[in-house]
Amino acid sequence: MISKMQINDEELKKKLTPQQYHILRERGTEAPFSGQYVNEHSKGMYTCAVCAQELFSSATKFDSGTGWPSFTDPVNLEHVELREDNEHRTEVACKNCGSHLGHVFDDGPADKGGKRYCINSACLVLNKEQTK
After folding, report:
1. 51 catalytic per annotation
2. Which residue numbers delimit the MsrB domain (predicted)?
């Protein structure tokens, strides 16, 4: 089990863009089709923009047509936290730092388990040197 790291919000405001801070810490979202990873097809590991926790492999990324990067599952279920949000959706957060990442829905590819992890590009960093 991963323990939550302590985060200093003032330091995060210096490290992140205003959009990243809004999404990651205030549970915002980016406009559809605006994120840098929507049409990204490179191989690699997507990590948390706050703490660098490994979250999603490019091997599970698929084109959902929704306007956000979509994955069939996280690289490790112990790396994400699922919780109900105010709109009765299932929020996806980084288990290491608690940052909001996006939401999970039950409309993903049936042959891959039926889940669609809909994640904001601003929450991710693609490390093209890591693959799983």
Report:
1. no
2. 9-129
